[in-house]
TrEMBL record:
Residues 769-796 form a coiled coil. It is a multi-pass membrane protein. PROSITE patterns: SOLCAR. SUPFAM superfamilies: Mitochondrial carrier. The chain crosses the membrane at residues 243-268, 280-301. Belongs to the RUS1 family. Belongs to the mitochondrial carrier (TC 2.A.29) family. It is found in: Membrane; Plastid, Chloroplast envelope. Residues 434-671 form the Protein root UVB sensitive/RUS domain. The keyword Protein transport does not apply. Keywords: Chloroplast, Coiled coil, Membrane, Plastid, Repeat, Transit peptide, Transmembrane, Transmembrane helix, Transport. This is Endoplasmic reticulum-adenine nucleotide transporter. Residues 677-808 form the Root UVB sensitive protein C-terminal domain. One of its GO terms (biological process) is transmembrane transport.
């Protein structure tokens, strides 16, 4: 426990009556004060007259508080003074916030109960009631008529109780998630903070969710008067799972609400003229608009949650609830109770957003304030900076030698890609507002220099083109379902519309998988198209398993079919880019369009034959009626399909060099001073293996602190910098592992050839390194061997038919180092 020094502060308290010492038994009977600082004795003891203390605030260890405990008389006379002395400041602030939150919930409880009644009236009324929805005024009158004034606060107690555990869990979870979302540089980006906040909200929602369900049941279901009565009834009749009905839409709505709220707030704020941005009216307007947009976006999930929390709800998932509500009440049914919800939340929206933005601004300001003296120190001793480590987030870490010849590091926050923006077309104001993380998600690496000039214009026009196409697809799907008997034009069209929504929702969930794959893993396919094409078939097979199980669980058709469609969409997201790389490999004459067209002929022919054989199998007597036989037949044919896919991919003979083929070529050259040809190398290449499981293990893009093994030795760092002065990378062996492993960190300007050179050095060390010798001597020897033999290696590659101009080995761009003169 840290030492806490008592601090004594004298203040004049007006209107405070003095008391005699014997009657009040003061806390410090023999205390003396010296009013003349010049009369302090050498031993430090005070001199003066005995004094009585009206109020004393002492920070002491917990075990010492017994000796200084105030008497009952003092507690009665000065309760606030005693409270301030014994209650920690953080606990007092938390308690005050909890009280304020409970008070706010109590004040807005009538609006909240009206909203709940409007949201759930359709489920409570049942199928036999002609009146399946009530309005705002009607709900007010209904509560007052049936239950009186107290009825407006029915169900508020669980909501008030929930405030304390929800806030406590959220604060603890937020601090925990912040540590998880920190980058390699130890910094937490704005996106990371939003993600940590969303995850913390989900965690606190999950833990306190039973109280939310109790609150709804108590508020809207008649006959209940206490929380214990509701809880016991739920446990007895529905089981423990009933306390988590509707949890899915609750968790789904948290992250979108936060994202839309902040995004709209910033966009509206930036759209305003500069002179209006700081005005109170502008802040209020932007807060109201952003809160309204976020509520409009996520409110249907709140309606779904409330109806799924009800006893006897017909909905088991979000995908069932949304079409069901639309079928019964129309689209407006998803927004029942929106008016009282807006009246309850919008007045607080400006305060909430300004508080969050203020916290972020204070945080950034504090970081800048901390970095400023560091920057000044760096500028005063610029000759001591020996290395600069640059991160993809824009953060810069400087390695500086101090007076004790030890390394100190300083972080500086910079705008990422600032140098690139100055020399690229991306500085166009049309795209300047996009966050870097979004640019990386939707554009290829190196954009716009890595694509043609018409790329962006084509995509901007292609987006609305595809939107209109999918709108037409949705409408056509509704007509197809009507044609096969789901609804009719002569009767109600609600059933057909609901069925169409279910079907299209299944496709939409699958499209999310393709979106994620294309945005997150778009840079993987050029390196190893054979591997990702094979993985696509594995994932597609898993999706088919979900489709097969719909026959066993028809009640869960929509979630199972959606999961199957999601898996198959992910597989398609892997398959299509990989196959385009393969097609490009075939088109050696620049005839990519013709190659793709002829491949389509083969594909359609195979499709027609497969459909015909599938129909014949289904017509086999007894097969359709026997589910185990059907599953066995599918499994056998699917295994045959995967084996044939593996054979077809193994037949490919790429003459480009990726990391897997580079390992094979380098190993052969290091051991035998020769390289295999394209056919032999492609045959030896393992399509299924991952790089992290291939020996020797190579870790690319490692921070310099890990390269140094966690040490701070200046001589070690300077030795490495001198050793690799002519290379575009720094490589060392991880001596903390028993298995052989190397760390590689790349310098600014490194290319695929630099990665290839590091692989060559790695394999030489793996084959010839002697553990008894000095590691730096062996690193120097491996560098010397590589410099002597690498040119010969490249010449042999050319003679063997390899395209040395197409080395598809990606250079990690998350971390790069920029060395300074040593």
């Amino acid at each position: 426990m840290r030492e806490e020094k008592p601090i004594l502060r004298l203040e004049t308290i007006s209107g405070l009556s003095p008391f005699d010492t014997p009657r009040n038994e003061p806390l410090l009977r023999n205390a003396r004060l010296s009013y003349n600082p010049n009369n302090r004795s050498k031993n430090g003891s005070g001199s003066g007259t005995p004094c009585n203390f009206a109020c004393l605030s002492v920070a002491e260890k917990r075990e010492q508080q017994r000796d200084f405990a105030p008497t009952p008389a003092q507690l009665l006379n000065h309760p606030l003074a005693a409270l301030s002395a014994y209650v920690p400041k953080d606990a007092a602030i938390f308690a005050a916030g909890a009280i304020a939150g409970a008070a706010a919930k109590t004040v807005t409880a009538p609006l909240d109960r009206i909203k709940l009644l409007m949201q759930t009236h359709g489920v409570r009324a049942g199928q036999e009631s002609a009146k399946k929805a009530i309005g705002f005024v009607e709900a007010i009158v209904l509560i007052g008529k049936d239950e009186g004034l107290k009825g407006y606060w029915k169900g508020n107690l669980p909501q008030v109780i929930r405030v304390v555990p929800y806030s406590a869990v959220q604060l603890f979870a937020y601090e925990t998630y912040k540590k998880l979302f920190k980058g390699k540089d130890g910094e937490l980006s704005v996106i990371g903070r939003l993600a940590a906040g969303a995850c913390a909200g989900m965690t606190s929602t999950f833990i306190t969710y039973p109280l939310d369900v109790l609150r709804l049941r108590l508020a809207v279901e008649p006959g209940y008067r206490t929380m214990s009565e509701v809880a016991l009834t739920m446990l007895r009749e529905e089981g423990f799972a009933s306390f988590y009905y509707g949890l899915g839409p609750s968790l789904l709505g948290i992250a979108p609400y936060i994202a839309v709220n902040f995004c709209i707030f910033d966009l509206v704020k930036k759209a305003l003229p500069e002179e209006y941005r700081q005005k109170t009216q502008a802040s209020l307007l932007t807060a109201v608009v952003s809160a309204a947009c976020a509520t409009l976006t996520c409110y249907p999930l709140d309606t779904v949650r409330r109806q799924m929390q009800m006893r006897g709800t017909p909905y088991k998932s979000v995908l069932e609830a949304i079409p069901g509500i639309i079928e019964r009440d129309g689209v407006i049914g998803l927004y029942r109770g929106f008016l009282p919800n807006a009246l309850k939340n919008l007045p607080n929206s400006r305060k909430s957003i300004e508080t969050k933005r203020g916290n972020l601004q204070i945080l950034y300001a504090s970081k800048e304030g901390q970095e400023e003296p560091q920057t000044d120190r760096i500028s005063k001793s610029e000759d001591q900076v020996i290395l600069v480590e640059r991160y993809g987030s824009g953060t810069v870490k400087r390695y500086i030698v101090d007076d004790d010849l030890q390394i100190r590091t300083f972080l500086e926050k910079h705008d990422s890609r600032s140098n690139e923006l100055q020399s690229s077309d991306l500085s166009d104001p049309i795209l300047s507002w996009l966050p870097d993380i979004l640019k990386d998600f939707v554009f290829p690496a190196g954009f716009p220099g890595s694509v043609s000039d018409d790329y962006l214009q084509y995509l901007l026009l292609q987006l609305p083109t595809n939107v209109t196409g999918w709108i037409c697809h949705t409408l056509v799907t509704s007509s197809l379902l009507k044609a096969v008997g789901v609804g009719s034009f002569s009767g109600t069209t609600a059933a057909a519309s609901a069925a169409a929504i279910r079907w299209v929702s299944k496709d939409g969930i699958g499209a999310l998988g393709r979106l994620f794959i294309g945005g997150r893993f778009g840079n993987l396919f050029d390196d190893d198209p054979k591997q990702w094409r094979m993985y696509a078939d594995f994932i597609g097979s898993a999706g088919s398993i979900f489709d097969l199980t719909t026959q066993v669980y028809p009640a869960y058709f929509l979630p199972l079919a959606s999961l199957g469609n999601l898996a198959k969409a992910v597989a398609r997201g892997l398959k299509d880019p990989s196959f385009r790389v393969i097609q490009n490999h075939f088109a050696i004459s620049g005839n990519l369009g013709e190659v793709a067209a002829k491949e389509e002929v083969w594909e359609v022919t195979a499709q027609l034959l497969g459909l015909s054989l599938g129909i014949l199998i289904l017509d086999t007597p007894g097969l359709v009626k026997s589910y185990p036989v059907l599953v066995s037949t599918w499994a056998s044919i699917r295994l045959l399909h995967l084996w044939l896919r593996y054979l077809s991919l193994s037949a490919l003979r790429f003459n480009t060099i990726n990391l897997k083929r580079a390992r094979i070529l380098v190993k052969s050259h290091v051991l035998h001073s020769r390289v295999p040809g394209c056919n032999d190398c492609n045959k030896e290449e393992n399509i299924l293996s991952w790089q992290r499981f291939i020996k020797p293990r190579i870790v690319f893009g490692v921070p310099m602190e890990e390269i140094l093994g966690g040490g701070r030795s200046t001589s070690m760092l300077k030795s490495l910098l001198r050793m690799y002065a002519r290379e575009e990378y720094i490589l060392t062996v991880n001596q903390q592992r028993k298995d052989f492993e190397v760390f590689v960190s790349f310098k600014v300007g490194a290319t695929s050839v630099s990665v290839l050179r590091s692989v060559w050095q790695t394999y030489w060390l793996h084959e010839y390194m002697n553990n008894s010798e000095n590691i730096y001597d062996q690193l120097a020897k491996s560098l010397s061997e590589m410099n002597d033999r690498f040119e010969e290696f490249i010449q042999q590659l050319d003679k063997a038919g390899w395209d040395t101009d197409q080395i598809n080995i990606r250079v990690p761009n998350e971390i790069s180092i920029d060395e300074c003169p040593v």
